[in-house]
Amino acid sequence: MTTIVLKKGREESLLRFHPWIFSGAVASVSGTPYEGEVVEVVSSEHKFLAYGHYQKGSIAVRVLTFSQDYHPSTDGRMPLEFWEDRISRALALRRVLEFPSHGTDCFRLVHGEGDSLPGLVVDIYKDVAVLQAHSAGMYISVDLIAEAIMRCCGDMVKAVYNKSAATAPHKAGLDLVDGYVTTPSESDERAVSENGNLFYVNWASGQKTGFFLDQRDNRELVGEYSKGRKVLNLFCYTGGFSVYALNCGASSVVSVDSSAVAVEMLRRNVMLNTGSEDAAGRHTAVCADALDYLRDVSDGRFDLMVVDPPAFAKHRDALDNALRAYRRLNASAIGKIASGGLLFTYSCSQAVDRRTFELTVFSAAAQTGRRVRILRRLTQPADHPVSIYHPEGDYLKGLLLYVE
């Protein structure tokens, strides 16, 4: 087994159970580990600290366990029993959170570091588990992970789909192909229920694993405030916020996205929930650039806006450009919304911390000269847990603003 020896004094973060080991902390590496291999990490005094997946880049090791309860197999992977232990623990938490429930049959089963499985995401859509590997180590263990999911979830999961071709590292020499790891499902699509609202989810063609489950609680909140309001949903994707608003009595909803595929699914979701593509004249779907559409909107036309853009900064080297984009977008929304309007604005960029996002929105508000108050600070739901030892996992940031 490859051993990673840390520099003197650089084990402190591991003793605090942080799951990342940065390359600058590494003193030496025994042998030539392949990317994704499970390695042993020891202190400068050669005391055991952790097992984790080796990778090239600034993060050299993603820690899987700080104990020696499970040892790597001869093939450089953790054994099936390890994966069963981690999946069963993740499932136990979801049971506490009452997932699945009568009104919700889609939820996140594994949330990376939040479930002590860094680099792995698993979402459940009714009876299909869709996994994404964000590291080589997770990708090469997909077969074991899928078997553990099937064993732990029992009759709840009938098939496991691997949606990692776009997320696993392309330079690791992996054969990145999406597809079923188990017996295939009869369809790549399900109509799922979320708080009683219905959505078609296609994990093969959709973004991420097929749907943005991390906005569940925020969608419900938008619904609560939508009754009688004129709603604009920017970057709407397949219409999550729009469906909640319509089902909760919005007087009108305009949904905007630049993807024609997403807009078509949006129309299907509106039909699924209301019986017509335009919700009896209350809904308009627009395939256009959200910023361009917002720029041309007349002042005061909407009194509730949802601004939920994709991650403008996936890496810290893109941070400055991202903050300028957030500032421009929010200044335009605040400037356009009706007096007494409610603005739900978000950032899902992990590189943008909560304080920086808020300062950016504050700056945008100041540009407009309008009186703006914070009603709520928003975040991800409980099935996207944040490890207390890994605060970086708090990636979804949002504000509910009241604009006079």
CATH topology annotation of the largest domain: Rossmann fold
Separation of termini?
Answer: 63 Å
Proportion in helices:
25-40%
Q: Can you summarize the main beta sheet?
A: 7 strands, mixed
The CATH H-level homologous superfamily of the largest domain: Vaccinia Virus protein VP39
- The share of residues in extended strands comes to 25-35%
Overall number of domains: 3
Shape: globular
Secondary structure tally: strands: 20
Q: In the CATH classification, which architecture of the largest domain applies?
A: 3-Layer(aba) Sandwich
Mean pLDDT: 96
Integer-rounded radius of gyration? 22 Å
Query: Treating each run of at least 4 consecutive H or I residues as one helix, how many helices?
Result: 10
Strand order of the largest sheet: 16-15-14-17-18-20-19
User: Residue ranges: pLDDT <50 for 5 or more in a row?
Assistant: none
Return the structural class: alpha/beta
**H/E series, N to C?**
EHEEEEEHEEEHHEEEEHEHEHEHEHEHEE
- State the name of the first-level CATH class of the largest domain: Alpha Beta
How would you describe this protein?
The chain has 404 residues and is of the alpha/beta class. The protein contains 10 helices and 20 strands. Helix 2 (80-96) crosses helix 4 (142-153), helix 5 (216-226) runs parallel beside helix 6 (240-247) and helix 6 (240-247) runs parallel beside helix 7 (260-274). The radius of gyration is 22 Å and the shape is globular. The termini are far apart. The model has no long low-confidence stretch (mean pLDDT 96).
